[in-house]
Fold Galactosylgalactosylxylosylprotein 3-beta-glucuronosyltransferase.
Amino acid sequence: MYLIIFISASVILYQYQLSNAWLISQNSQEFHVLSPKTGDKPRSGSLFNASSISNTTPCFQEPEDLLPPLYVITPTYRRPEQLAELTRLSHTLMLVKNVFWIVVEDATNKNHLVAELLKKTGLKHEHLLAPMPELYRKKKGPKPRGVSNRNRGLQWIRQNAKTGVFYFADDDNTYDLQLFTEIRYTKRVSMFPVGLITKLGVSSPIVRNGRFSGFYDGWVAGRKFPVDMAGFAVAVEFLLQRPKALMPFRPGFEEDGFLKSLEPFEPQDIELLASNCTKILVWHTQTKKNEPSQPLDLAKYNSTNLVMLKQILV
Amino acid sequence: MYLIIFISASVILYQYQLSNAWLISQNSQEFHVLSPKTGDKPRSGSLFNASSISNTTPCFQEPEDLLPPLYVITPTYRRPEQLAELTRLSHTLMLVKNVFWIVVEDATNKNHLVAELLKKTGLKHEHLLAPMPELYRKKKGPKPRGVSNRNRGLQWIRQNAKTGVFYFADDDNTYDLQLFTEIRYTKRVSMFPVGLITKLGVSSPIVRNGRFSGFYDGWVAGRKFPVDMAGFAVAVEFLLQRPKALMPFRPGFEEDGFLKSLEPFEPQDIELLASNCTKILVWHTQTKKNEPSQPLDLAKYNSTNLVMLKQILV
């Protein structure tokens, strides 16, 4: 009899622990900043690959707050394609664990449609403003787009993050989920190929006999680091040890300037990802620009749904 | 004493039921084709909105096989942007429940990179081929792109589906998750606004006093249904009752021709979605075309990672 009671009690206790674990994973909405353990390597297999994040997500996954936090900095600006681009990128990020999305608008006021979109995703996020300085806005020729935004993102990271990794992810690019699994464990600066760059079709570190041996990029222009903005990720601690690191307002030299400002840091220090740079996990997709939409004939359509639609359009 | 045993037993039974429910939802990978109950309406709130599909997915959601199946037909063809576009769309679909992705290549052989991508997503899918007939391929001027593919998708649906809804989703468009929640309950043909179409910036049914009263589209051209391919969804049963419905090989008139082939069906029969067509839940985003990548200098790079990267590039 006592045996039965004992067994029952054990089973109840065990079940209680299970449901408790479930409750914990349910409530892990807060953002935990934890140091990755030394030697902690990207884990392959069922927990992290894309197929495990399908419709039937198992409940008893590793709590995501054990993963190093991933900060994704996305510069954006108002244009007809903006909401579409952010929507699409948000879907990718919604499949990534322990990610914090820093969206920085090149604007003086926050776009409420962007704020609503961010809220709807359920992602942990920060919505910031960083207008391009007048000085550059008035200049003729190519403009240093997204520099204010990215530097504002870096400032936020210096003020709020202690560990983890950050990545500059433009809203029109395309990211394989595997990319986030890999960059999360960056110790200093990791690099990897970016597809759809220049006439070569790809920009990548060159790897010979398993070691870094230069850069392959259609536009070198004397750059020490001829890479694309989407081609590298940086450890937060590495940045914090370099208080002067910043992106310069110099069109075409933003990446190079920023990476050089991370000194001491040499091309030989790069961590090579994407199976020694043999896979493409990110593409520099560019969206065709649309002209602002034509005005609505209010005399004709004043009491229709089109009035509300027009308020959304740029 | 017996009371304690009884309580213990009850608790165990209850816990067993809970974990059983969990196991069922775990194993729902198979595709269940169930009739939606009559009067089954889109349910709003926590189960279906985007924020509930965040990183902390609750375990005890409604089993997805109770939802009407959603068939997404995506025509695609080989080009530098193809893998990126399909990757991005797959992330959106990975957040949709009980979805079946029918990817149809305009090609004579299946691209193994597309097959690998499909497998990696974990989505229920079908990978089909439907090359454009020579007759149209040789013709000068605009070509009926994607028509073979979509008709092949329709053929698959006639052969394999009994209930649910299908939707033509091009790989470069952008879809809000809310769109899939809404179209899933289409009884005949549902329609909704599509952003980034023509100079008007949007194509949409016009709604006046809560009722359909025409179409707003920058290119009417005598079409009975001046709508975009991404602007409507059709119930499978409705299609099955129209054995002759097909898309014509007529550039610019694909949508109109297909919708007219669904007769008996009049514009007044349209089900209006997206809050009476006041919201934009899908955008006709177009990706900037890239030239095929330049050849690799094999004398210079023959023993590097670039050889493997070049095999992926178009």
Summary: The two ends of chain B are 75 Å apart (CA to CA).
